[in-house]
Automatic annotation (TrEMBL):
Xref: SMART domains: HTH_XRE
Organism lineage string: Bacteria, Bacillati, Bacillota, Bacilli, Bacillales
Keyword DNA-binding appears in the UniProt entry: yes
Organism of provenance: Niallia alba
The protein's name: Helix-turn-helix domain-containing protein
Domain of life of the native organism: Bacteria
Sin domain sequence ranges: 63-101
Entry annotated with the keyword Cytoplasm: no
Family annotation (InterPro entries): Cro/C1-type_HTH, Lambda_DNA-bd_dom_sf, SinR/SinI_dimer_dom, SinR/SinI_dimer_dom_sf, TransReg_Diox_bact_type
Gene Ontology molecular function: any one: protein dimerization activity
GO cellular component: cytosol
Keyword annotations from UniProtKB, A to Z: DNA-binding
Length: 106
């Protein structure tokens, strides 16, 4: 469960395993084994390092996936509705994402 959460948030932030490991100061192989369900019980210290890089509370990684999915789906729907209502187009949204990625890399 925790490994799936880590992977979901890592991919959402568009971070590779290597980048997450480097930024958190942990072993890439350990993150990989968590994401694949080989390791199951990481320490709270490890989770704190990972959650810091992913910019989420540690508790988020510990919540059952279903409750997170429902909560996040509602939040994304509200954000999407607000963007559409403000007149944002799909192309503008894509440009915004590309800008954020560029800004993060520079």
């Amino acid at each position: 469960m925790i490994g799936k959460q880590i992977k979901k948030y890592r991919l959402a932030k568009n971070i590779t395993l290597s980048e997450l490991a480097e930024q958190a100061g942990v072993a890439k192989s350990y993150i990989s084994s968590l994401e694949r369900g080989i390791q199951l019980n990481p320490s709270i210290h490890f989770l704190a390092k990972i959650s810091n890089v992913l910019e989420i509370p540690v508790e988020t990684l510990l919540q059952p996936e279903e409750s997170l999915t429902n909560e996040m789906e509602l939040e994304w729907k509200v954000l999407l509705r607000d963007a559409i209502n403000s007149g944002m187009t799909k192309e503008q949204f894509r440009e915004f994402l590309e800008f954020r990625k560029w800004k993060k890399d520079h």
